[in-house]
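Researcher: Here's the sequence for the chain we discussed earlier.
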Amino acid sequence: MTLKTPQKPTNVVNHAPRRSNPARNSVQGKINRAAGRAFEDRIDLTFEYYKKRGFALIDKTPEPTRIIRKMEGGQFIGVYTKKGQPDYKGIMKGGRTVVFEAKFTSTDRLQSTAVTETQWEYLTRATELGAWCYILGGFRSGNAYKIPWHVWRGMKDRFGRKYVTETDLEEFKINISSTGLLMIFTDKKST
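Model: Thanks. This is the structure I predict for it:
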């Protein structure tokens, strides 16, 4: 009588749940938020440049906040009173209204769900009224993209999924000046 030794499976898949590391997630969250703030700071500097040169007047939309407790040094603890509108609104020389929502990702994709329902409705309505509306998308690579709202809104139909990658957005890539400013309105893609 011969005994057969059991064969080891060649395609072993570990289905054990991936364990979350709260400390690592917390640090990564802080890094992601800092990178997102840096992206918005870069946008702010760009719009300040346009303002000083008389090309556009575009301002950051303040988040509606209610103060819960005042603290020393002009600081306070507060809560948002309603969902935020798009990040930037303004006017370009000649009278064109522009609206931007800034989104940054430290991954390789921007999800359509990054735009809230309130922002979605505002951008759609502003577009219907004639405003030029965009998502300013930033990636960890340092590249930025000016994505027309109609492209973002039709993401699923255009790209076959509800996210975009840098490769998908190549035609909307923003040139960056030698000083790091985003040259948002220096190309033919402004419409």
